[in-house]
Amino acid sequence: MNSAGRALVKPVEQGVGVFSAMLAVFARDVRVAFRQRQDLLNPLLFFVMVVTLFPLGVSPEVSFLQQSGAGILWVAALLAVLLSLDHLFRHDFDDGTLEQLVLQPQPLFLLILAKTLAHWMLTGLPLVILSPVLGVMVHLDGNSIAILCLTLLIGTPVLSLIGSIGAALTLGLRSAGVLLSLLIIPLYIPVLIFGTGTVAAAAEGAPVGGYLALMGAFLVLALTLAPFASAAALRISMSNS
């Protein structure tokens, strides 16, 4: 186990509170991510490259980009999050930290929630921050860009939470990345549909409150159920490894 893993396990073993344990897991994942900058930058570079190259490969016409720009950014964000999910538990599994985490007295689903929130802060939140610049690149107007950022701010945590289930299920398997994509992409489709639909409705001047309410419901549902499912999947994967 590396020094970061020992730094995590030691305070958790000392009987600290649940919130302190979650904070230790969150802080440890952030520190490890900044030590492995390649894994941190790859999803962001992928996001920028997809949005940049799409007009070159399809059509640079302003009218086309205005109609499809929200979809382009949402698909690129979805794939960028998917690209980073394989590393959510992989490094901890390889160095033995994950096994120690499973054995801790604190509820595993809360520790996984902390890891997932760290993943979103390091992957999903930067995508939200970059989206206004890329929205201008695909000729979205100011209102559409604002709604796009709001939908990404609500939707990207859902992508990370759902993705944590697939990452836990495929832990330790060969070709885990391909299997993870097959498992998770169908579950991402409702978020993608309502994310792009919200921006399209805003561009047409239609009310978007219903779309945002549904996306908020997706987020609440994912926050409620995904950590439990991920914890169960992680125990299964660890017992079979």
TrEMBL record:
Keyword Heme applies: no
Organism per entry: Marinobacter halophilus
InterPro entries per record: Cyt_c_biogenesis_CcmB, Cyt_c_CcmB_bac
The protein's name in its UniProt record: Heme exporter protein B
One annotated GO biological process: cytochrome c biosynthetic process
Gene from which this protein is expressed: ccmB
Main location: membrane
GO molecular function: heme transmembrane transporter activity
Transmembrane parts of this sequence: 40-58, 70-89, 109-133, 145-171, 178-203, 209-234
Membrane topology classification: Multi-pass membrane protein
Location relative to the cell: Cell inner membrane
Superkingdom of source: Bacteria
Protein family: Belongs to the CcmB/CycW/HelB family.
Keyword Transmembrane: yes
Gene Ontology, cellular component aspect: plasma membrane
Function: Required for the export of heme to the periplasm for the biogenesis of c-type cytochromes.
Alphabetical keyword list: Cell inner membrane, Cell membrane, Cytochrome c-type biogenesis, Membrane, Transmembrane, Transmembrane helix, Transport
Ranges in coiled-coil conformation: none
Signal peptide interval: none
